[in-house]
Design goal:
about 160 residues; alpha+beta; Immunoglobulin-like; 5-stranded antiparallel β-sheet; 8 strands; about 15% helix
């Protein structure tokens, strides 16, 4: 009986080991370690606009040809952008700058216009938005003297959405 008991014990131990291995309690796998590193940078608001544009000659009573502006979001967050005239501008001509997002949109004047640009798909990339700019002098009074090279700065301010 001793031999039979020994066989039963061995069989029981083998069955128990197989059960443990099947349930993942016993493993002969090897492990290794991976170190993960990242640079997490703060959100950046950054846009790029054309350096300058020039309207063709225009006379009161007319609206200019459109100028296509390609504005770029080169930061890392969605932004809302508002163009405004520099506080140093004291004239009236460029108060009549108008903008459209889409050609069929109504013309919106500089102090009321804004538009959004989503963030680029990748850090270091860019996303562009085309807008249309006009100089609307349809209701502008006649001028006594020509305004040659009349200039103003338009400041585009971006804020995060």
């Amino acid at each position: 009986m001793e031999e039979k008991e020994m066989k039963n014990k061995i069989l029981a131990i083998l069955l128990f080991s197989v059960c443990l291995a099947s349930f993942g309690f016993v493993s002969s796998a090897e492990t290794d370690t991976l170190t993960v590193t990242a640079n997490v940078l703060p959100t950046e608001i950054s846009i790029s606009v054309p350096e300058s544009v020039t309207f063709q000659d225009i006379t009161p009573g007319y609206i200019s040809e459109r100028i296509d502006l390609d504005i770029k979001n080169i930061g890392t967050t969605d932004v809302s952008i508002t163009p405004r005239l520099s506080t140093e501008y004291i004239g009236e001509v460029f108060q009549k700058l108008g903008f459209r997002r889409v050609l069929s949109d109504e013309l919106i004047y500089i102090r009321y216009f804004d538009f959004d640009i989503e963030k680029p798909e990748v850090v270091g990339g860019e996303r562009s938005q085309n807008i249309y700019m006009y100089l609307d002098l349809e209701d502008f009074p006649d001028v006594d003297d020509a305004l040659i090279d009349h200039t103003a700065e338009v400041i585009f301010t971006a804020v995060p959405l």
